[in-house]
Design goal:
Elements (H helix, E strand, L loop, with lengths): L1 H14 L6 E9 L4 E9 H12 L14 H12 E5 L3 E2 L3 E8 L2 E9 L6 E6 L10 E7 L4 E6 L5 E5 L1
Parallel strand pairs: 1-8
Antiparallel strand pairs: 1-2, 2-6, 3-4, 3-7, 5-6, 7-10, 8-9
Length: about 160
């Protein structure tokens, strides 16, 4: 099922304008190593809407017309709308390793580290739901023992996991 979602998203982005509002987050969790590595993929036209409506920045991502503050503002937006809390209280600081433009999508590569072994995790993903009523955020999680997939939206935006 997870493979189907990944292939579907890639096909939609490669061959046409996206038919729905969707983001994909891939997470690898190393509970014993206390680390989380994630990649968040969002369509550039959706992000341009965020830049325009939230920050009053008129920018065409990936072109010479891209505003110099676009990526910094988008990183700020991701950190504002996506969070991970572990062990019932420790909010992970997510550090952006890179932001890449691939075709019509931006990929945010991020990581976070917990102070202790991760036993529980709460993921809050409200990306793009503030501007797109039909936004769906797919979260694909690899715990090392199993793969887990969740579809989040404006009404259901949190996941709680026991590892």
């Amino acid at each position: 099922m997870l493979l189907f979602f990944a292939v579907w998203i890639n096909c939609c982005s490669a061959f046409m304008a996206h038919p729905s509002y969707v983001s994909v987050t891939n997470m690898d969790i190393d509970a014993q190593g206390r680390s989380v590595v994630l990649t968040i993929k969002m369509f550039t036209d959706d992000l341009e809407t965020i830049l325009h409506n939230k920050y009053n920045i008129h920018s065409w991502i990936g072109t010479q017309a891209e505003h110099r503050d676009s990526r910094r503002r988008l990183e700020e937006y991701v950190n504002e709308r996506f969070s991970i809390v572990v062990n019932s209280g420790e909010k992970l600081v997510l550090v952006t390793d890179s932001i890449c433009l691939i075709e019509d999508s931006m990929w945010f590569h991020m990581k976070g580290a917990a102070k202790q072994t991760i036993r529980r995790m709460e993921i809050d993903n409200r990306l793009l739901t503030d501007f797109f009523e039909r936004q769906n955020n797919l979260v694909l999680i690899n715990t090392g023992r199993k793969d887990i997939g969740h579809k989040l939206d404006r009404k259901k935006f949190k996941i709680e996991l026991s590892l």
